[in-house]
């Protein structure tokens, strides 16, 4: 997996052959050793994505959010974990974009995101603003809550910190706004 990841990052997924992966991993090319471990290159990529690119609810400490005791602190903790994840994933950005364009890219993204979305939705469903919402409405609220922060962090990575808005100001305003909204019963 390590050899394949290095090749995928260097050459891209589509330009990396299984024979090249076998050679880089110290296997005899075309002798079948690769297929003893993986069904094919796509299966290998899925395992790499799960191990190197995806984040889990455990990585984010979602099961411990109640220990914070207030929604604003919980939001800040989640936001900081997303920031760490995006920094950690930055070296994979080109590969992630290539994968999204592949036939199975959407399926892979959904598989990777499902556990996080379910865990975040479970956290959100306990907030007064989410009481009585359908699963679809909770998902829309979840995306609304975190979309602004993720967009800001993405922009920081792409262009540097915007002159008119510091990271700390954005985090403070975002967390305060959404904590107030989430703690208000509809």
Count of individual domains: 2
Low-confidence stretches: none
Give the end-to-end Cα distance, rounded to a whole number of Å.
Answer: 48 Å
Major beta sheet summary? none
Query: What is the number of beta strands?
Result: 0
C-alpha geometry? elongated
Estimate the mean pLDDT confidence.
87
Order of helices and strands, N to C?
Answer: HHHHHHHHHH
The number of helical runs is 10
Category from helices, strands and their pairing: mainly alpha
Highlighted features:
mainly alpha, elongated, 10 helices, Tetracycline Repressor, domain 2, 186 residues, 2 domains, Arc Repressor Mutant, subunit A
Describe the structure in brief.
With 186 residues, the protein is mainly α.
Describe the structure.
The chain has 186 residues and is mostly helical. It folds into two domains: 1-53, Arc Repressor Mutant, subunit A, CATH 1.10.10.60; 55-186, Tetracycline Repressor, domain 2, CATH 1.10.357. Helices cover 69% and strands 0% of the residues. Helix 8 packs across helix 9 and helix 9 packs antiparallel against helix 10. The N and C termini lie far apart (48 Å). The mean pLDDT is 87.
Map the helices and strands.
Elements: H1 2-11, H2 18-24, H3 34-37, H4 41-53, H5 57-60, H6 71-89, H7 93-101, H8 105-125, H9 135-159, H10 167-182
């Amino acid at each position: 997996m390590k050899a394949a990841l290095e090749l995928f990052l260097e050459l891209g997924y589509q330009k990396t052959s299984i024979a090249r992966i076998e050679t880089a991993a110290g296997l005899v090319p075309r002798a079948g050793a690769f297929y003893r471990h993986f069904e094919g290159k796509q299966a290998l990529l899925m395992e790499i994505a799960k191990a190197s690119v995806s984040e889990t609810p455990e990585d984010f400490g979602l099961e411990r959010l109640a220990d914070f005791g207030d929604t604003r602190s919980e939001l800040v903790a989640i936001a900081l974990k997303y920031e760490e994840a995006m920094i950690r994933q930055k070296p994979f950005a080109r590969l992630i974009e290539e994968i999204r364009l592949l036939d199975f890219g959407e399926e892979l993204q959904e598989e990777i995101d499902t556990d996080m979305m379910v865990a975040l939705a479970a956290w959100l469903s306990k907030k007064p603003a989410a009481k009585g919402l359908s699963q679809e409405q909770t998902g829309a609220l979840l995306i609304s809550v975190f979309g602004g922060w993720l967009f800001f962090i993405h922009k920081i990575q792409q262009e540097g910190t915007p002159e008119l808005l510091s990271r700390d100001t954005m985090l403070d305003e975002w967390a305060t706004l959404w904590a107030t909204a989430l703690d208000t019963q509809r």
